[in-house]
Write a structure and sequence with these properties.
This protein is mainly alpha-helical and 129 residues long. The chain is built from three helices and three strands, in the order βββααα. The protein has a three-stranded antiparallel beta sheet, with no helix packed on it. Strand 2 (34-38) and strand 3 form a beta hairpin. It is flat, with a radius of gyration of 27 Å.
């Protein structure tokens, strides 16, 4: 294939590399979007997006609280759970809460290690805790 645009009815084969179309500005204060043609489909590709700075502590804490609430909610029905052979539901909540607490501690240590690594990488930064 040359640098020319493909003919109107041209369908690229699977062996042809994807064709990137030029970015189009639209004047709406949104990032420009690149269109990538793969086969006979056109996919829109956003520019590089920065990842969220999430350390997971809040997520693990909320999950642990949910498991605890579910377990406490089942306690009044313990005899019914035993009679129906579903007492394992309660033990699942206990395990979820316990593993969630371990996850909270893991994420807190990870967050502290990442903060230490950032402060070592930037010695001029004063980190007051």
């Amino acid at each position: 294939m040359t640098g020319e645009a493909p003919a109107a009815g041209h369908r690229p084969s699977r062996d042809e590399p994807p064709t990137a179309r030029p970015r189009r500005g639209h004047g709406l204060d949104k990032p420009e979007v690149t269109e990538l043609e793969i086969g006979h489909r056109i996919h829109k590709v956003a520019p590089d997006v920065q990842p969220l700075d999430v350390d997971g502590v809040r997520t693990m804490a909320v999950g642990s609280a949910i498991w605890l609430a579910l377990g406490l909610g089942m306690l009044p029905f313990m005899s019914t759970l035993q009679a129906n052979g579903t007492i394992w539901w309660l033990w699942t909540c206990v395990a979820g809460f316990g593993l969630g607490l371990m996850g909270v501690e893991y994420c807190r240590r990870r967050r502290a290690a990442l903060a230490d690594a950032d402060s070592e990488a930037d010695p001029g930064h004063d980190d007051a805790r």
